[in-house]
Amino acid sequence: MTLTNRPNLPAPDRAALTVLGIESSCDDTAAAVIRHAPPAPAQILSSVVWGQTELHAGFGGVVPEIAARAHAEKLDHAVEAALTQAGVTFTDLDAIAVTAGPGLIGGVLSGVMLARGISAATGLPLLGVNHLAGHALTPRLTDTIAFPYLMLLVSGGHCQFLLVSGADDFTRLGGTIDDAPGEAFDKVAKLLALPQPGGPSVEAAARSGDPKRFTLPRPLMDRPGCDMSFSGLKTAVLRTRDALVAAHGGLRESDRADLCASFQAAVADVLSGKARRALALYMAEHPAQPVFAVAGGVAANATLRGALDHVAQQAGARFLAPPLALCTDNAAMIAWAGLEQIRAGTPAPQDFVARPRWPLDKTAAPLLGAGKKGAKS
Predict the structure, then answer these.
(1) Whether pTM exceeds 0.90
(2) Farthest CA pair distance, the chain
(3) Residue 80: inside a domain, yes or no?
(4) Which reaction does it catalyse (predicted)?
(5) Has 155 been labeled as part of a binding site?
(6) Domain that residue 345 falls in
(7) Residue 157 marked as a ligand binder
């Protein structure tokens, strides 16, 4: 899908900007309106997020075709609701920002098609936004911090340490070479017969568990660098579960809770250990007022947040985590990323495509391989 003949974007120094954001990269249909009038902080005038948990509950995960159809049915209503909540109309907007990737291509196309239609009907300029950039720039929406800062982007499909130096300037310091933590949480939940999405289910079960009962691996901690691995940890949970079932004729609730707690502790240790290394690299080059931020759906996990906050305090860095509503997928972050592009004066391409893959650091070697569709991460 290529978009052409877009109107010119507003001037970067415009006193006030109001941007509509549209997000549909996975299973959350979202629209939001952001207003920014420096020197005041940005305002989230509205943020509408409609999940699809019930639609996918019987399948053990997100079904791309079902997700795409749901987006196509609800996106226009989400935009209408966001405009109504914000108390604005299309004539009050300066631009539209839409997730153009990465994500499930059917959902991404649904959002891009709607945004293209609105742009054509209203004459509003259109910005294609990298979904990951939306997460990575969220700390500037919530806390107006300066560049550069260290970001751990940790979600269902991605996990990477990024040096964020500008609205379109990201340097990857390390990332997962296989499963992302959110994916591992989902798979562990499925192994333990817990409902999806797996992250909240595992976290809830872990609250009553003993994190020290089972000795699970901390992959790649014996190797230098900031790369991570979570596939082997997931396999270790599977083997432990099978041993418990064989020993007791089934999985007891106490076993399930202890296994969830032990798994969550292992993830926290890996993220914390690699965060120390990433902070050392970042602070060696940028020692003044260092900031370590975390974003993405897995950042909603209180145990992981606490562990990362502790690491930041030990290193002497400020720790930032967005409000829970801005951790998971939302359109406010997409609107803000588009607004950041405008403020930065980033040249707007005359066309962009909906992309299932779209790495933030365009110079780094792919962590997870690449094919005809491009680098995965």
Answers:
(1) yes
(2) 68
(3) yes
(4) L-threonylcarbamoyladenylate + adenosine(37) in tRNA = N(6)-L-threonylcarbamoyladenosine(37) in tRNA + AMP + H(+)
(5) yes
(6) 17-140+329-375
(7) yes
